[in-house]
Amino acid sequence: MSDNSQIKVVFSPEEIQRRVRELAEQITSDFAGQEPIMLGVLKGCFIFLSDLVRQVDLPLEIDFVRLASYGSSDTSSGRVQLVKAPEISIKGRPVLVVEDIIDTGNTLKWLVEYLEGMQPSSVNLCVLVDKAERREVEVEVDYVGFKVPDGFLVGYGLDFDERFRFLPGIYELNPQRGGA
Ligand SMILES: O=P(O)(O)OC[C@H]1O[C@H](OP(=O)(O)OP(=O)(O)O)[C@H](O)[C@@H]1O
Ligand code: HPA
Ligand SMILES: [Mg+2]
Known about the structure:
There is one protein chain. By secondary structure, this protein is of the alpha/beta class. Helix content is 23%, strand content 29%. It has a six-stranded mixed sheet with strand order 4-3-2-5-6-7, sandwiched between helices. The protein has a three-stranded antiparallel sheet with strand order 1-9-8. Helix 1 packs across helix 2. It is globular. The structure holds 1-O-pyrophosphono-5-O-phosphono-alpha-D-ribofuranose (PRP), hypoxanthine and magnesium ion. The site of 1-O-pyrophosphono-5-O-phosphono-alpha-D-ribofuranose (PRP) has 18 residues, from strand 3, strand 5 and helix 3. The site of hypoxanthine (HPA) has 8 residues, from strand 8. This is Hypoxanthine phosphoribosyltransferase.
């Protein structure tokens, strides 16, 4: 760490790799015979999606959307902005959305409604980290890597103001503030 932030390990790189492998096995079995579009939500998804697609044994396609709601704050504004739309046509295709984290649920709720407007054959959600206690809107998540209580997490794609995404594990930032 190059500043005075305090951090606590929440999930080690090894734990994450184990869990990603399990999720990939489940997805491979559930989507057998299909060619899903794995739709990553930038930027946070970039490491999780990269690890996941190399473990899933399916003829999948990969695309991205870019959404933003947190900006440089550690609380969601609740307003979701579409910065980049999918490039592959999702009409009639199974879509598996891949996200680093669900917190209030605002981002994924907005995205599911947006995607359904494009008439995919199915939309399923895969998130690595679920902060279920903080949910503000109902969202059905099909694949969850880890459930966690409150506390701001960084690493493995997750940022605070664009920092810390590159860290290999998942860490809680300023744990004394989050009360964990
Ligand atoms: O459930 P919510 O409360 O909506 O929060 C989850 C969203 O917040 C983060 O994105 P952010 O806006 O920080 O963009 P980023 O992926 O570029 O970091 C995260 O990657 C999710 O997309
Ligand atoms: O804990 C978090 N860390 C990083 N980004 C986030 N977006 C929602 N919750 C979080
Ligand atoms: Mg972010």
